[in-house]
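Private note to self, pasted from the team thread so I don't lose it. Backbone tokens:
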């Protein structure tokens, strides 16, 4: 939800008052102005003046816990009959939410200039999970208008002339080619999409996106978001102060009758794909919406129920203002390094996720991340966020959410799972992969592609909230175990020793373990998952670098235990059977690399392969012709190092094997 910062700048004080009035940190924004978080610089970034996404400033790791915590942890699993397992979860549980206004930077310039790093990042998840969920929307969806053409063949453009004092969000114009861009992506990697319906104006609704998306995306379309945080509409002046869940329901009725009267849904498919109520738990509780009869009334039309929630906001740093109290990230770091963060945030939704089950609906966290208004410097962009995001995702799965989309914006935020380089640097810089992406990769493997996976947050007597543990089950039997260690202690004194046993089952002679690792919770860049990394800022073409490192741990077959060590800090995913490992790590990988260019007018210092890989967008502007070959069936690739040309306009992709 929230505000576009461009209009906010012109009405700064109004914006600020509203933002600060928002209790519970619901608001998110796409920010296009410098973030003021550097007010609390600690070390490297003291003189940094660039955009937020690449700010190198790091925090100080928190002290080791005192008194000491339980570090030798018995994990007693049961081979069958474990109570309280979650609903069955999909490997695509952890998806991405892309602010609509930045899709031309992240997905591609147009349907023939796709961002190859994006394809690779999605392919990595697909390899482990089978598919990927991506939501295109956010506050900029609310006034998005489908137009026939835009200048210079652009696929989207902010119409700043349309900004008025009350709407505060510049209307976004987009063309059908944005939808073709999405569908072309889905033809390479198994990405399925959510789109937002513009909801500020309901008389009449602008249904252009619905008709076009159904036609162009077909089965790759998962749902249409019916309103973005409607319980904040009154606060922002989009609805009268009396606006209630009943009024929102009335608008859904209006939508359906307008779809019928205009013929906007010729296949009859779109009107069954609504996602609601997408509230921020700000002015309305979920129960108030359920008790309005929402789900029963629109049961045939609702594909998913959904909410949006951020644990807190960093809006003062994003917007400043005369009375803004900018939060020192160091003062909130420890709030991200504890499992309690997740149980507290999710507890208010447990009744709703049970309710959703009784109605046969999935329940999504439609937009979230570490803090709204861009996240916190040193937290959202460090290893802390990788551990936090993975624990959060697993706790949502345990809590019977059925998916969660982690938000990304432009250059001026800290929390991006991945960031394309600034346009003016895209000829020599590659992408920056953030900690949340590593969490998504590990989550995809934790759940895997079986569709039979259930998750349980395991209680152990005297367990510290610094060392949460999950059992992961398929067909009722434990297959994987996830062990976190949020403590930062290089001495080894706080390493976890998790002693796994299986009642009613037999411990294997050995188990395989993959680690999510960094030297400290405050480390930026160079995080590793099973030994592979996407490097530092500007270092990635979306393919993992380095050799995969899967540890083998010998078990004690006499005692019937396996002891897994987890460094402080760190995370371990333990595969209890070989099948548990191969089902999600053995799938053929598909990755894309652009080939070297034969001609370049660019500066001689730029390696052509790097140039080609970094961004097709700039290639086009410099008219660097690539080679086109006939399209080939990307997903049929089985063997490593099979090079297949994929024609994507002038971007030539090579299919190979990275992992
Ligand atoms: C199942 O979960 C509920 C709610 O958290 C709890 O009260 C109950 O004790 C759990 N049952 C078992 C057998 O652990
Ligand atoms: C999740 O749903 C399952 C199945 O209904 C239930 O047993 C379990 O207690 C629920 N978990 C939570 C945390 O509510
Ligand atoms: C995409 O952009 C390139 C370069 O601007 C252009 O040549 C191409 O025709 C565009 N493709 C579409 C489908 O508009
Ligand atoms: C931009 O908005 C203005 C005012 O709403 C409108 O008149 C104009 O047609 C819009 N321009 C485009 C390209 O959509
Ligand atoms: C991408 O979309 C365009 C429509 O602009 C279409 O002509 C083209 O065939 C698509 N390319 C691929 C590789 O699917
Ligand atoms: C749970 O949700 C249902 C449906 O809204 C409601 O009737 C019930 O009172 C709620 N229970 C609690 C404990 O909030
Ligand atoms: C800032 O604080 C001062 C003093 O408390 C108050 O008079 C003023 O109205 C506040 N301004 C804003 C924009 O909140
Ligand atoms: C790119 O633009 C940003 C923001 O205007 C600026 O800070 C940076 O120095 C520019 N980079 C280059 C290489 O010109
Ligand atoms: C899991 O479900 C998806 C549909 O949601 C389906 O496409 C896929 O084939 C299923 N996977 C398995 C292993 O059954
Ligand atoms: C839990 O901690 C208390 C106090 O330190 C101790 O007395 C008790 O034995 C512990 N329980 C277990 C199961 O370790
Ligand atoms: C990440 O690794 C690169 C290459 O080894 C190195 O140059 C860089 O300093 C590392 N960055 C951090 C934050 O460790």
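Design output:
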């Amino acid at each position: 939800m929230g505000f576009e910062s461009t209009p906010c700048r012109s009405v700064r004080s109004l914006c600020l008052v509203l933002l600060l009035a928002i209790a519970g940190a619901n608001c998110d924004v796409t920010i296009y102005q410098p973030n003021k978080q550097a007010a609390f610089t600690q070390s490297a970034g003291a003189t940094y003046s660039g955009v937020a996404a690449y700010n190198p400033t790091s925090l100080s790791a928190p002290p080791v816990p005192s008194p000491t915590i339980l570090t030798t942890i018995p994990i007693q699993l049961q081979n069958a009959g474990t109570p309280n397992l979650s609903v069955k979860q999909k490997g695509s549980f952890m998806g991405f939410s892309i602010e609509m206004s930045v899709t031309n930077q992240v997905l591609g310039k147009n349907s023939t200039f796709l961002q190859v790093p994006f394809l690779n990042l999605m392919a990595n998840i697909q390899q482990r999970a089978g598919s990927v969920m991506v939501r295109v929307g956010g506050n900029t969806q609310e006034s998005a208008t489908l137009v026939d053409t835009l200048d210079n063949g652009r696929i989207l453009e902010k119409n700043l002339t349309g900004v008025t004092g009350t709407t505060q969000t510049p209307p976004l114009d987009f063309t059908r080619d944005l939808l073709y861009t999405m569908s072309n992506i889905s033809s390479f990697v198994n990405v399925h999409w959510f789109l937002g319906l513009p909801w500020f104006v309901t008389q009449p609704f602008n249904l252009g996106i619905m008709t076009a998306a159904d036609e162009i995306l077909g089965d790759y379309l998962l749902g249409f978001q019916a309103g973005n945080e409607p319980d904040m509409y009154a606060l922002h002046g989009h609805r009268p102060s009396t606006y209630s869940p009943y009024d929102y329901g009335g608008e859904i009725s209006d939508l359906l009758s307008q779809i019928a009267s205009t013929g906007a849904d010729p296949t009859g498919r779109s009107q069954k794909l609504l996602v609601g109520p997408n509230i921020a738990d700000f002015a309305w509780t979920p129960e108030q919406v359920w008790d309005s009869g929402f789900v029963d009334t629109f049961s045939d039309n609702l594909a998913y129920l959904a909410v949006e929630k951020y644990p807190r906001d960093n809006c003062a740093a994003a917007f400043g203002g005369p009375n803004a109290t900018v939060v020192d990230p160091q003062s909130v770091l420890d709030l991200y390094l504890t499992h309690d963060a997740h149980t507290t945030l999710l507890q208010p939704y447990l009744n709703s996720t049970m309710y959703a089950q009784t109605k046969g609906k999935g329940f999504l966290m439609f937009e979230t991340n570490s803090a709204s208004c861009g996240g916190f410097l040193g937290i959202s962009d460090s290893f802390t966020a990788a551990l936090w995001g993975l624990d959060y995702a697993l706790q949502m799965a345990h809590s019977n959410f059925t998916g969660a989309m982690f938000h990304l914006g432009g250059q001026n935020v800290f929390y991006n799972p991945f960031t394309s380089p600034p346009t003016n640097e895209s000829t020599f810089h590659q992408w920056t992969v953030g900690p949340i992406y590593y969490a998504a990769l590990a989550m995809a493997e934790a759940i895997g592609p079986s569709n039979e996976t259930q998750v349980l947050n395991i209680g152990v007597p005297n367990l510290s909230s610094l060392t949460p543990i999950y059992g992961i089950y398929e067909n009722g039997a434990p297959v994987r175990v996830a062990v976190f260690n949020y403590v930062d202690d290089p001495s080894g004194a706080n390493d976890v020793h998790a002693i796994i046993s299986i009642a009613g089952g037999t411990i294997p002679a050995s188990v395989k373990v993959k680690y999510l690792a960094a030297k400290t919770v405050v480390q930026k860049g160079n995080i590793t998952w099973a030994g592979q990394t996407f490097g530092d800022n500007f270092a990635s073409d979306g393919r993992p670098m380095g050799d995969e490192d899967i540890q083998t741990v010998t078990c004690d077959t006499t005692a019937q235990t396996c002891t897994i060590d987890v460094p402080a800090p760190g995370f371990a995913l333990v595969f209890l059977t070989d099948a548990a490992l191969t089902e999600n790590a053995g799938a053929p990988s598909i990755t894309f690399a652009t080939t070297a260019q034969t001609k370049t007018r660019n500066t001689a210092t730029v390696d052509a392969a790097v140039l080609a890989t970094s961004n097709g967008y700039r290639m086009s502007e410099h008219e660097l012709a690539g080679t086109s070959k006939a399209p080939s069936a990307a997903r049929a690739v089985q063997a490593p190092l099979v090079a297949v040309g994929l024609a994507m306009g002038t971007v030539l992709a090579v299919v190979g094997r990275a992992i």
